[in-house]
Amino acid sequence: MALTERELEHLERLARLRLSGESREKLREQLARIIDFVRQLQEIDTTGLEPRAHVGAFESVPRPDEVQPCLPRDEVLAASPENRDGFFVVPAVIDAEGL
Q1: How confident is the model at residue 61 (pLDDT cuts 50, 70, 90)?
Q2: Alpha-carbon distance 56 to 62, whole Å?
């Protein structure tokens, strides 16, 4: 399905693009192929098929939860750029005055 000039202009505005010449025609051809492919996909009968998030059969296999010793707090804090009272000091994410 070929895109009309009006449809292509509309897409340019939505994408905030300004295309010209060869790149404009190339995009028109590529979009037409994509639209044709999607139309082919829509013709596939999927009656009775459950929606899937993945094509393959994936199964989450959690690893066993094993208690292991953690790093000493003082050693970890010593490697940080800045810490105070046993905690990491990081830049503010939310300006408290703006609340």
Answers
A1: confident
A2: 18
Please identify which residue in the block is written with the tokens 């139309």. Answer: 39
Q: Which CATH class is domain 5-42?
A: mainly alpha
* pTM of structure: 0.48
**Residue 83, number of CB atoms within 10 A of its CB:** 16
Per-residue pLDDT tens for 9-57? 898 899 998 888 888 889 889 999 999 999 999 999 989 988 877 777 7
Measured distance CA(84)–CA(78) in Å, rounded: 11
- Scanning the structure block, which residue is given the tokens 């009006």? 6
- Cβ atoms of 86 and 73 within 8 Å: the answer is yes
How many CB atoms are located within 10 Å of the residue 30 CB? Answer: 10
